[in-house]
Amino acid sequence: MTSADVGTVMQRALWTTFMVGGPIVLVSMVVGLTISIFQAATQINEATLTFVPKLVLVALVLVILGPSMIDQLVQFTQYVFQVASQASR
Description:
Helix content is about 90%, strand content about 0%. It is mainly alpha-helical and about 90 residues long. The chain has one domain. The chain is elongated.
């Protein structure tokens, strides 16, 4: 396996990480920011007010995008095994 192959695998790993984790982090950030603005405007400081909506929306994102995320992880794993088998020849 050459250094170019390792670089390509690492690049693909980073991209897969962004594609799988990105939607979850993005939804969590948007919900957190929205609720923080609401809390600042109304001066309500309740910890569960941020936790419950984040939990529900992250679960919803996982239900909706879960199959796509699993497919991307499977494709990446197959790619890594393919590159590794070609390097052993």
